[in-house]
Design goal:
Blueprint: H1 2-13, H2 21-24, H3 28-36, E1 47-51, E2 59-62, H4 73-79, E3 85-88, H5 103-117, E4 123-128, H6 130-144, E5 149-155, H7 169-185, H8 192-221, H9 234-248, E6 258-263, E7 285-290, H10 302-319, E8 329-331
Parallel strand pairs: 2-3, 2-4, 4-5, 5-6, 6-7, 7-8
Antiparallel strand pairs: 1-3
């Protein structure tokens, strides 16, 4: 809904706003005041203060494939007011072409902004989906610089080690079936009528997104410079770039400990119970399994469970009482 709103604003006013503006102007009235200000344009940074207050050290959470950090709003709120929460949004969401195309480039850029806010460790890092990969690379670089990373918390992140998965037609159909089942589990109000309304809306969104993706591909095909003058939504364009970066990333071995928080069930092609991170963290790998399905991890009421697990890990990391790793990984 926010993407559609900002797309309409772009058409009406000829000005682009990143979705993170909603953290500064969370009501219609404040958003209208912001638009009325002649000559005003949002100062672009990747670092977004979602919940900057609180006495605890800040937690920095990297965007997923879509590039936006609006999905972290409820997670930050349920975490508690005493826990500062900063999101890192993708460059390029503001219609500029300074987007980043590799996990390594993202890690380097985001760390520069983080270290302006917090010059020294210990650091507490995380990310969702491809954001988990970026956080992993950020932790690697901080440790190499002699800094301390007390928490590396990845949310439903997978490591493909630079080998993209390939699907047969039957596997693609099976993945679509699973997606329907997983979204069904996230319906906020059970009942046949609620499910019909929910799936009708989801189907409209999915169809619109697919049309936008094909539009972008066609525009790219006939453009001399394929990354300019893309008429489709910037979020869809960045999702393609971020997907390529995710699948191309080959991580080194991180000397510290890593925690991966994942849904109870996952897509059939993701067969590894360690999400591909088994050999990546020399300090140990904790796997926390949540009683939710993919797609519902940031939705109510499931987001409260994720917030509770994150708070527990942050508190352990703050106090220096992280659980010792007794084997290759610990399943909680």
């Amino acid at each position: 809904v926010a993407v559609r709103l900002f797309s309409e604003m772009r058409k009406l006013f000829g000005r682009s706003f990143p979705l993170s503006v909603l953290f500064q102007a969370p009501t219609v009235e404040k958003l209208a005041d912001m638009i009325r200000k002649g000559g005003w344009s949002p100062q672009w940074t990747s670092l977004v203060p979602i919940q900057p207050g609180g006495s605890k050290p800040p937690f920095f959470c990297v965007h997923g494939g879509g590039g936006n950090v609006l999905i972290y709003r409820e997670l930050a709120r349920h975490l508690g007011e005493d826990y500062p929460f900063y999101g890192l949004q993708a460059r390029g969401l503001d219609e500029n072409d300074d987007y980043l195309t590799t996990v390594e480039a993202m890690a380097e850029s985001y760390l520069r902004e983080i270290r302006e806010l917090q010059p020294e460790g210990p650091y507490y890092l995380g990310g969702f989906c491809m954001g988990g990969q970026v956080a992993f690379e950020m932790a690697q670089r901080l440790v190499r610089d002699g800094e301390q990373v007390n928490l590396l918390f990845a949310i439903d992140a997978h490591n493909f080690n630079g080998i993209p998965p390939r699907f047969t037609l039957s596997e693609k159909v099976g993945n679509l079936e699973q997606k329907i089942v997983f979204h069904s589990s996230a319906v906020p109000h059970p009942g046949i009528k609620s499910r019909i309304i929910y799936f009708a809306e989801k189907s409209k969104i999915a169809l619109r997104r697919e049309i936008e993706r094909w539009h972008i591909k066609i525009v790219h095909l006939f453009k001399l410079n394929p990354h300019r003058d893309v008429l489709g939504p910037r979020e869809e364009f960045l999702a393609e770039i971020n997907d390529r970066a995710l699948l191309a990333y080959v991580p080194g071995v991180y000397p510290g400990k890593m925690t991966v928080c994942k849904p109870r069930r996952k897509y059939a092609f993701l067969r590894d119970p360690l999400n591909g991170w088994g050999e990546a963290a020399a300090g140990g790998l904790d796997i926390i399994e949540l009683p939710v399905h993919p797609g519902g991890i940031f939705a109510k009421p499931f987001v409260q469970i994720l917030a509770d697990r994150l708070r527990e890990n942050l508190d352990q990391a703050f106090s220096g009482q992280a659980e010792p790793v007794e084997s290759e990984f610990v399943l909680k």
